[in-house]
């Protein structure tokens, strides 16, 4: 079997409300690139990458000169063809490689009649548990719903998600407001859902001293971990020396060189494996094996997925024996998807691992066209900008916090 063509389509899919984070905002939607790899046997594999537009689509068009005529089973050959470690110093293609790996694994699973999890060693569980992913949110630009700015609004949102989806672990994305205010919100959340588990992520915008202060102030909470309170292995190591809870990262350990450095001089306890950031599902499985050897925790990270990438996260979560925590997913914030059958469904806080051949998902061509047209109308948005603070940028460590008393609604195109 040979690859005959590679196609890329940028889509933008609406969210229930704009999601605020330490570096800016998701402006009421996700922008993603959907990749299709076609073969001479009529099998098409699907991939997905964050971001999009002409530049992203051009990357995948360029990959045709590398991959057309090649066997999609030769995944290691593909890695060196398009993401050679030294050449990648000049053309970082890790996320493009991931999308193409997804598609090739999808092709192989379809050809062999097995789900991707069976190619990766066989699933150890049929469902992957997920945490709720709570954000401070601006109101929905269409109807004004969904604002999450105050402790009461946060608690109400968490209770609604728990009732609807069955979550028993909850992650709060912070780094938007001053740490003192976010501490108040986190305590309110933990008090309202006593007995559940919690995790906090300020996206590495605190100083080490702030991280230590915050971490010590939440020791009474049943924390899974504190995620990326500071930027860099040295800062994480200093914080870890003073705190009595695991530290986690998807920022400072995202490749094997960094993983080796962390093992030789530990700074992080839990590695959050992202099928995009690590360059595919297979590198994540490999990294999980290293973590198993050295008794590090692992969990599945979310970078703002649609159904194709969520399928990769499910297959990953199904096959690693040391999945120590519920996975992250932005997925419940989406109002729609581009796969047949609509969005994946949660059952008691978990999602079933697909059992159909390949990734187990198919494109809904009508939805792909609808959200491609929406992208063509709206274009991209500046992920690292706040729509109510033009020209703002955070420092690291940050002191330019949003004001929780500011109840304005941004005017965002939709």
- Given as residue ranges, the uncertain stretches (5+ residues, pLDDT < 50) are none
* Tally of distinct domains: 2
Sketch the topology as an H/E string, one letter per element.
EEEEEHHHHEEHEHEHEHEHEHEHEH
Q: Write out the CATH superfamily name of the largest domain.
A: Enolase-like C-terminal domain
Q: State the secondary-structure class.
A: alpha/beta
Structural notes for this entry:
Helix 10 links the parallel strand 12 and strand 13. Helices cover 35% and strands 17% of the residues. It has twelve helices and 14 strands. The strands form four sheets. The chain has a seven-stranded parallel beta sheet with strand order 7-8-9-10-11-12-13. A three-stranded antiparallel beta sheet has the order 1-4-5. The chain has a two-stranded antiparallel sheet with strand order 2-3. The protein folds into two domains: 126 residues, 2-Layer Sandwich (Enolase-like, domain 1); 235 residues, Enolase-like C-terminal domain (TIM Barrel), CATH 3.20.20.120. Helix 7 packs parallel to helix 8 and helix 10 runs parallel beside helix 11. It has 414 residues and is α/β, with parallel strands linked by helices.
């Amino acid at each position: 079997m040979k690859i005959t063509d590679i196609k890329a389509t940028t889509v933008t899919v609406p969210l229930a409300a704009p999601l605020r984070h330490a570096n800016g905002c998701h402006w009421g939607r996700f922008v993603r690139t959907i990749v299709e790899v076609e073969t001479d046997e009529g099998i098409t594999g699907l991939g997905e990458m964050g971001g999009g537009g002409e530049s992203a689509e051009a990357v995948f068009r360029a990959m045709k000169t590398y991959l057309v005529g090649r066997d999609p089973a030769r995944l290691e050959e593909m890695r060196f063809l398009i993401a050679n470690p030294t050449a990648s110093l000049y053309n970082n293609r890790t996320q493009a490689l991931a999308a193409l790996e997804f598609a090739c694994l999808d092709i192989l699973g379809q050809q062999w009649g097995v789900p991707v999890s069976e190619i990766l060693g066989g699933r150890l569980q049929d469902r992957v548990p997920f945490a709720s992913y709570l954000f401070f949110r601006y109101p929905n630009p269409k109807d004004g719903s969904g604002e999450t700015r105050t402790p009461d609004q946060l608690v109400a949102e968490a209770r609604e998600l728990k009732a609807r989806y069955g979550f028993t672990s909850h992650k709060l994305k912070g780094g938007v407001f001053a740490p003192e205010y976010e501490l108040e919100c986190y305590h309110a959340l933990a008090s309202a859902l006593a007995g559940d588990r919690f995790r906090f992520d300020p996206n590495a915008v605190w100083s080490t001293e702030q991280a230590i202060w915050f971490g010590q102030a939440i020791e009474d909470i049943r924390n899974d971990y504190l995620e990326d309170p500071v930027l860099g292995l040295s800062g994480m190591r200093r914080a870890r020396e003073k705190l009595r809870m695991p530290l986690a990262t998807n920022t400072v350990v995202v490749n094997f060189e960094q993983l080796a450095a962390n093992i030789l001089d530990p700074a992080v306890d839990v590695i959050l494996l992202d099928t995009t950031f690590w360059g595919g599902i297979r590198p994540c499985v490999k990294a999980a094996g290293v973590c198993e050897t050295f008794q590090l925790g692992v969990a599945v990270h979310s970078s703002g997925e649609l159904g194709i990438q969520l399928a990769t996260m499910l297959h990953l979560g199904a096959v690693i024996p040391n999945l120590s925590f519920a996975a992250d997913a932005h997925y419940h914030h989406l109002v729609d998807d581009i796969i047949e059958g609509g969005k994946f469904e949660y059952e008691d806080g978990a999602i079933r691992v697909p059992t159909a051949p390949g990734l187990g998902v198919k494109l809904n061509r009508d939805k792909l066209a609808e959200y491609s047209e929406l992208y063509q109308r709206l274009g991209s948005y500046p992920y690292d900008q706040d729509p109510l603070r033009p020209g703002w940028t955070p420092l690291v460590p940050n002191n330019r916090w949003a004001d929780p008393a500011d109840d304005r609604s941004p005017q965002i195109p939709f």
